[in-house]
Amino acid sequence: MKPIQVGLLGIGTVGSGTFEVLKRNQEEIQRRAGRPIQVTMVADLDTARAQAIVGSAVKVVNDARQVIANPDIDIVVELIGGYGIAKQLVLEAIAAGKHVVTANKALLAVHGTEIFAAAHKQGVMVAFEAAVAGGIPIIKALREGLSANRIHWVAGIINGTTNFILSEMRDKGLAFGDVLKQAQALGYAEADPTFDIEGVDAAHKATIMAAIAFGVPVQFDKAYVEGITKLEAQDIRYAEQLGYRIKLLGISKRTATGIELRVHPCLVPAKRLIANVEGAMNAVMVQADAVGTTLYYGKGAGSEPTASAVIADLVDVTRLHTADPLNRVPHLAFQPETFDQAKDQLPVLPMQQVVTSYYLRLRVADQAGVLAQITGIFAQASISIDAVLQREAGEGENQTDLIILTHDCVEAKMNQAIAQMQQLSTVLAPITRIRKEELN
Predict the structure, then answer these.
(1) Domain-terminating residue out of 312, 340, 368
(2) How does 73-91 read in b/e, with b if 16+ C-beta sit within 10 Å?
(3) Do 178 and 57 have their domain in common?
């Protein structure tokens, strides 16, 4: 059978891994796909380096549009990244009738609705398993494996850089800044780590998972995003004492009034499997009505783990290459022409309407009546307290830390209560607030 011909746009870390795994496992992949899959053309600005990677049998050019214009290319793999030229090239490939495989979570989270609509109109596929959680097949699980289920929530450690930093802070008691430098030295963090440490990368991925899980368009602009830059080692220690670990989670949850879409640090019970995911590893939990809770764990980045997901998409596209477009699995697991947005779409809730529980750390004066003041404010706000931990002041100290865990309440109420507590003369520093997720 005629091989499927693939053109790579970019042959950096993921592109070179994709080429190597395709070559190494070609017999296995051909058996699973039903026909050979061959990279026959590569576009990269550094043509000499690219040619050295792929050898003389593959044509290398410095203009991606030459790949798109080649009538023999069946699938275009976009590995450039970012929102700019990558978007133009993906849309041009779709317009040319090419199937597209991409690892570009930022592009899909921001422009996915436009891209999927264009692909649907042209009758081509856009596959993106590698865009979320590297080698973990979470997109396929949500789109296909769990298609019988009504999904209640998805919660994931989907950024390896931040998980590595939090693991090191917990294990070694180091400050955030010190561990960040270590992560950069080891190659886990970029020279500019903003997208990772501020939660943006995780929010891109959470946006894509929410769209598939709940049948809504991608809406990155409505996600609540909070990173780990303000976390302190002492909060990680207190969380441990209370039986929790702090993780940066991407969370999407279906409620009666709408969908929660948020990324922020969370206290997670130490007994949960996901709380024990360490280093640069990723994990995603899905809670659904029929199957219950499932957990997906593995490497979230790297050359060959991500290449594994890219090639899985190539195999899927190859299998369905000649299928009727209307009978393929839809990009976001629902057929857009059968979806009435005004009637069916749940809104993404603003953070003020989210209901969760909280960890609060207050630096307070070590004097009688302080705890009564604090609990009085909670009582007025109808916020129930779950646990209180008060560190004994050291000899000669006149202030101490007061740690409070609450039961569930709406975020707007907690915001008001924190504002009131902050005004007390006995509260001596800005209050630290970390949300708590039981994931049960």
Answers:
(1) 340
(2) bbbbbbbbbeeeebbebbb
(3) no
- Residues 246, 316: one domain? no
Alpha carbon distance 135, 141 (integer Å): 13
Does one domain contain both 130 and 170? no
Return the pLDDT at 344: 57
Taking 90 as the threshold, does the pLDDT of residue 101 lie above it? Answer: yes
Residue 350 located in a structural domain: no
Six-digit token pair at 137?
């097949």
Residue 54 structural domain: 4-135+303-340
- The CATH code of the domain that includes 152 is 3.30.360.10
Instruction: Provide the CA 128 distance to its chain's centre, in angstroms.
Output: 13
What pairs with residue 433 in β-bridges?
360
Do both 323 and 366 map to the same domain?
no
Cα dihedral 417/423/424/425 (nearest 10): 160
The single residue of 105, 205, 247, 253 carrying the catalytic annotation is 205
Q: pLDDT band at 317, cuts 50/70/90?
A: very high
214, 204 contact by CB (below 8 A):
no
CB 271 within 8 A of CB 259: no
Residue 8 has a pLDDT of: 98
Task: Report pTM.
Answer: 0.94
Give residue 337's pLDDT. 58
The rounded percent of the chain whose pLDDT value lies above 90 is 87
| Residue 205: active-site member | yes
Specify whether 292 is located in the same domain as 361. no
Q: List, in order, residues 6 or more apart from 422 with CB less than 8 Å away.
A: 430, 431
Query: What does 223-277 look like in DSSP terms, one character per residue?
Result: -EE--STT--HHHHHHHHHTTEEEEEEEEEEE-SS-EEEEEEEEEEETTSGGGG-
